[in-house]
Amino acid sequence: MDFQQIIPSMPYILQGIWVTLQIVLIAGLLGFAIGIILSLFKIGRISFLRWFADAYTSIFRGTPLVLQLMIIYYASPQLFGTQIEAYTAAILSFGLNSAAYISEIIRAGIQAVDKGQKEAAMALGVPYNKMMKDVILPQAMKNILPALMNEFITLTKESAIVTVIGVTDIMRRAYIVGSDKFAFLEPLLFAGLIYYLMVLVLTFAGKWVEGRMRRSD
Amino acid sequence: MIKVEGLYKSFGSLEVLKEINAEIKEGEVVVVIGPSGSGKSTFLRCLNLLETPTKGKITIAQDEITSAKYNPQKLRSEVGMVFQHFHLFPHMTTLENVTYAPIKVKGKSKKEAEQLGLDLLKKVGLSEKANEYPNRLSGGQKQRVAIARALAMEPSVMLFDEPTSALDPEMVKEVLDVMKSLAQTGMTMMIVTHEMGFAREVADRVIFMDEGMLVEEAQPLDFFSAPKTERAQNFLQKVL
Ligand SMILES: Nc1ncnc2c1ncn2[C@@H]1O[C@H](COP(=O)(O)OP(=O)(O)OP(=O)(O)O)[C@@H](O)[C@H]1O
Ligand SMILES: [Mg+2]
Fold this sequence. Notes:
The complex is a heterodimer.
Chain A: H1 10-43, H2 47-62, H3 65-74, H4 76-80, H5 86-111, H6 115-123, H7 128-158, H8 170-181, H9 185-215
Chain B: E1 2-11, E2 14-24, E3 29-33, H1 40-47, E4 55-60, E5 63-64, H2 72-76, E6 79-82, H3 94-104, H4 110-123, H5 139-151, E7 157-161, H6 169-184, E8 188-192, H7 196-202, E9 205-210, E10 213-218, H8 220-225, H9 230-239
Parallel strand pairs in B: 3-8, 3-9, 6-7, 7-8
Antiparallel strand pairs in B: 1-2, 1-4, 4-5, 9-10
Helix pairs in contact in B: 3-4, 3-5, 4-5, 5-6
The structure holds adenosine-5'-triphosphate and magnesium ion.
């Protein structure tokens, strides 16, 4: 092994961190927003919306992420009438995919909130929307934070597959450096180290937030 | 104030309330007693539509709340409810618990609601706990906050479902005292409780329920010394 030879390429690979982070962050937020809506559909009374949210979850969890990514990217002219950028396709597919997982996490979190909370709010005449927003969801968020953090970590690792549609994230850059130098092991190990450190940081950040939340109990 | 006519409630095939007729006058304090599973909670919960009656008519302050046209939101600021397990909002301070509904439901200004909230917390003896979170309070304190929270909607009727049953014995009195002083202000109250001493002292009337039926209704003194029905006699023998 000779890491010497990739030292000049290290900054190039490191710049991929921003690409990866951007995808993960925006897709994470998108997934969270859609996830909340889907979870509200799931616990709501309108059976069509319930059905829709369940079907959505089932499909996105039941097919490979890389397939969803390739459909959204390569079939975008047929789907949206125009070729979208790889970066956009990556965010879109990761956001839509994680929405399915996050909606399940939030649904479980909402249902774990004591039923008495809903009754107390109803007895005070609080309308459903306000009850959800001010009473139930804040308590549900506390329950679901660890699972949400996990999902975020998974997203960070899985984001490496955007390399198949040519997004120059950490993974793609390591691969490019590898083919340039005819030596793959070193750049790929370096990429692995970056991912691992990112996951560690996220894990610690999650623990820290959790600890703070627990302290407010 | 409250009029209940031919009230029935079933859960699936289980008939929990059968042909309940009752009337509660303004300012009256009515205590509901009866064995476990007799439908006391269900009866109370029908009165603020936490349960939808299967059949029958309930009128509160001239409004027929069981009519399809009635807006339950309106009722809930008319009728306050206190639960056995308090159900305070754990992520809000004591004062926020009390001011939340007046602000978000009644549209009071924050300042106005806080004034009212502090007044009410003072009435239940918890002024100094205004900025404390519920998990820092004892059971008795939590229940007093819950009472203040219900009162903050300025209801004309207050329902209590076993408000002291989840409390350690030494905390029962502080809650009953708050309820007593509330009764003295002329609040119309309906209370499910196993505190017979309290019933005897504070109630204007006792309603005895068994197996989903309203079996006996009497002045507390008459009821406790000479219950008319055999079922009430049996029940009192067991609990007194
Ligand atoms: N949501 C529900 N679904 C099905 N059955 C119910 C429901 N709520 C109450 N019941 C049943 O209705 C009956 C009466 O219940 P209720 O809680 O009104 O009795 P209670 O007199 O308040 O009893 P306790 O003194 O134990 O509180 C019980 O048999 C109970 O199991
Ligand atoms: Mg009960």
